[in-house]
Amino acid sequence: MIPRIALDAMSGDHGPSIVVHAAIKVLSEMDDLHLILVGDEVVLKSVLGHHSAKVKERLSIRHAGQRVEMDESPSRALRNKKDSSMRVAINLVKEGLADACVSAGNTGALMATARYVLKTLPGIDRPAIITGLPNMQETCTHVLDLGANIDTTSEHLFQFAAMGTVLTQAVDNLPNPRIGLLNIGQEEIKGNECVKKAAKLLASSSSINYIGFVEGDDIFKGTVDVVVCDGFVGNVSLKTTEGVAKMISHYVKQSFNKNLWTRFVALISLPILKNLRHKIDPRRHNGASLLGLRGIVIKSHGSADMLSFTYAIKEAIIEVQKNVPEQISHILDTLLSEKGRVE
Amino acid sequence: MIPRIALDAMSGDHGPSIVVHAAIKVLSEMDDLHLILVGDEVVLKSVLGHHSAKVKERLSIRHAGQRVEMDESPSRALRNKKDSSMRVAINLVKEGLADACVSAGNTGALMATARYVLKTLPGIDRPAIITGLPNMQETCTHVLDLGANIDTTSEHLFQFAAMGTVLTQAVDNLPNPRIGLLNIGQEEIKGNECVKKAAKLLASSSSINYIGFVEGDDIFKGTVDVVVCDGFVGNVSLKTTEGVAKMISHYVKQSFNKNLWTRFVALISLPILKNLRHKIDPRRHNGASLLGLRGIVIKSHGSADMLSFTYAIKEAIIEVQKNVPEQISHILDTLLSEKGRVE
């Protein structure tokens, strides 16, 4: 089966100019793939230009007349943008004409639309957003939820742990991923009631490799594979990560740009700085997954560049190949029967 | 008035070897100061050694026979460690024999003991922990609460904003500090009920310069002076910051240590890397304040080195000079009368 991925081509800060070129790049690297650009047909054809000849059999265009704005409220987008590139791309997944969709659009609108159109899997109350962050072991630590849910119960955190287990098994090929619960201390007495109750649920499950509480700095140590938290905390932690990295990068540039001598040192340090940048390059981790839906939806960073967007497309391809939603359904069945035995 | 600061000399990962030398360093830099080392007299005298002669009039020792362990539960410390260096140091503040105390001990035990011995200020339901973090403007962004409170109401967040205002006015000499409320988006519709309600309370106050919602990355931009959040979120954000910084520092070392050539480049880059380190050196921001108490208590990082601990002592001195607890009482009176008018 050749994966068919629908791309919301009007999405993100840069729209078609990024999405179309990312599509061409991925198609040039992979043979067995079909991509569908969703958006304004005239614009898309013009951006495609002479490229269309070399990819014509593996790339199609699906017209959509509207666009969801980056600051549009989810409810407005849902009500008024039924012909938006985002909505049409998700519809293609629902109708079985695409196996996954990728959008760099407004997260709230994407989640609301995907949830409305695709519905959640049986046993999942709330979908969650998950992404990978770099760590010191040169692997990747997945964190969820990143903002889809702001008031979560211990049961939701438990479901997030199950979904995170499946995703890292599929994407990182880890047979038994280590699951940690984000807290403000590692001792059992620490944290609020919701986190304590979730810890008990996780500890009693034989299908989840729960390793206990972890703290914010553990995300970057590589000693845990999936960090579970509510969406408010996860979103603040993700944005904090971006903020620290940007500040350090700002001061690196400033320090190496101070005068002629520092600029010379920068020049000879360039290969080292590039190697360093590669190790923590956020672009390599672009592509957050909306988990818990009856379909695969990948969210690219709104400011993603071309390279970055290709990683989001590749994330979608892996999830299609590994059939992540079905795997999630499967682990949920196991967990529910486990719970039946416990109760 | 000469500030008298009690130092919990047995606290932190390194105990007296760090605290005593930090005390000597600060005394050598400042004339009008009296420091009280609290802890095992025999140990302290032996660490002081020949230094005692040059500081003898400005340094005293107060014996305490116990020590609170780093992993001891707050309730156990409170019940069983009545002669601990931590408790005795706080008692000195209560008895008016010291104007402030500094400890690198267990945060939970320090907060519980300080709260029990000193009590909170009138109008303050819960004390909070605040610290400064570096930002891109080469100033410092204060964040509170960092873990003293895990279930906060909008009223608590409002009190944190008031305390943060006073602290930054005193410590950073900002007449009208910008206060932001940490959220997962800047639009008014974002966030949980508690944050939304706190936003309304803050917007209606004329004594607080409330600038609206901020996100995790705003902490490092220098566009807000005080970031207000509940202790769970604040603690995760602080630990995330530490984690990202450590990971980047790990990869910088690794990249510059790869082979002979990279080590040579590191050598000539050294002044630049040092300058860089200085700008984001967490040691310069050591010294978190426990705000809302009837006394000044400063928490040093447990792993603080000597230089780092001197910053915590200096934070205590500034807060004594500016009389922070009295200033907090004052702004609370104003806020309460404001609220009286509104209601």
Cα separation of the termini of chain A: 41 Å
Mass-distribution shape of chain A:
globular
DSSP helical segment count of chain A: 12
Strands side by side in the biggest sheet of chain A: 3-2-1-4-11-10-5-6-9-7-8
- Number of separate strands of chain A: 11
Mean residue pLDDT of chain A: 91
Sheet with the most strands, sense and barrel status of chain A: 11 strands, mixed
Using a beta-carbon cutoff below 8 angstroms, give the protein chain pair with the largest interface and the number of residues from each chain: A-B, 57 and 57 residues
CATH class group of the largest domain in chain A: Alpha Beta
**Quaternary status:** homodimer
The CATH architecture category of the largest domain in chain A equals: 3-Layer(aba) Sandwich
Coarse structural class of chain A: alpha/beta
CATH topology of the largest domain in chain A: Isopropylmalate Dehydrogenase
Instruction: List the domain count of chain A as a whole number.
Output: 2
